[in-house]
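>> Question from a student workshop board

For tomorrow's exercise we were told to take the sequence and the ligand below, predict the bound structure, and bring the output to class. My setup keeps failing. Could a helper post the expected result so I can at least see what it should look like? The ligand is 3-isopropylmalic acid.
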Amino acid sequence: MTTYSLLILPGDGIGPEVMAEVRKVIGWFENNRGLSFDVSEDLVGGAAYDKHGKPLADETMAKAQAVDAVLLGAVGGPKYDELDFSLKPERGLLRLRKEMDLFANLRPAQCFDALADFSSLKREVVAGLDILIVRELTSGVYFGEPRGISADDTPGNEGGRVGVNTQRYTSGEIRRVARSAFELARKRGNRVCSMEKANVMESGILWREEVQWVHDNEYPDVALSHMYADNGAMQLVRNPRQFDVILTDNLFGDVLSDAAAMLTGSLGMLPSASLGAPMANGRPKALYEPVHGSAPDITGQGKANPIACILSFAMCLRYSFDLGVEADMLEKAVEQVLADGLRTADLMGPEGGTPVSTSEMGDRILAALSAQ
Ligand code: NAD
Ligand code: IPM
Ligand code: MN
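>> Workshop helper replied:
Here is what the output should look like for this input. Compare the format with yours to find the bug.
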């Protein structure tokens, strides 16, 4: 029997709360579907800083490189706001992404029918929505050099300090994430819309030209369009179902995916997969995490919606373990509890529903799995 190795990094804030529900789901698949997981757990973010004085220990980094897949909760929180930039919790997550070379971040936004009335947009705009944002994750302005804040804070020298970040892409970086988007599009609606700002940024011109090159030479069968990212943000809210796969850079992808979250009803619904090059077993190096953060405003209150983290595990089943049947089962179980009217606090609107806590939501998802 295959044993899948998993490294779980719950992180900070609601990270451990939502990850506890994923652990239940893992247990359910072991007990009921005969799957075998070798699960280890470690620290990332503020939790790692508290223990090791840095947001990701080298030993944890090495473990992440060695396992079949990493599951991450969330990092960050006000407790760490004053830390030196290099020690901030977010640096731990960015180090994982960079050193594992997880260049393709898949952020699907699906509107479950039971939540179509809950979205802040009208039902007829979001019902049936199923789009996939492919965000470049290891380059662009998040990592470009030069970067930093100039040290010149001489009193009286008002305006003398400079904050610098550099938007930088190579053609190779653009081509590889474009290939990921085209491959994924072929298994869906066969359409890719690439978003940048080629009207104001040279890196945007390069992005557009390279995406077009990959299309023309390798994926001429996929329908490709280009859009300026600001228009893309507007179109996402105006008529999101016009899109199938959206391909975009690191920063635009971060912003556009939070916007897309509200099309589904809540940021607590959006999962993600961060994929790199294939490992020796043919499967991609991978980290799975919800799109949301550590939600300090609701931490410790049993209010967090665990669905984004649970659906991230469904993506892990599909992309890292090739367990499409099990992934479908888990996604159906989520759909079922929503259809049954179960709602964590973030999903409670005027149309009502049965309020449930984080752990009750997890329990009901297990029950829905068992009922299949
Ligand atoms: P956030 O995503 O943590 O929270 C934004 C809002 O959404 C909050 O009102 C929160 O309560 C709500 N929310 C988020 N997830 C939810 C869930 N599962 N269920 C119910 N409600 C949910 O963003 P923020 O407040 O801007 O950032 C807080 C911290 O998280 C910061 O330190 C930030 O850097 C970090 N962050 C981490 C990640 C990550 O680890 N991948 C992602 C985004 C933000
Ligand atoms: C995300 C987060 C991260 C990002 C932060 C926490 C580093 O916002 O995963 O969306 O900006 O990529
Ligand atoms: Mn984000």
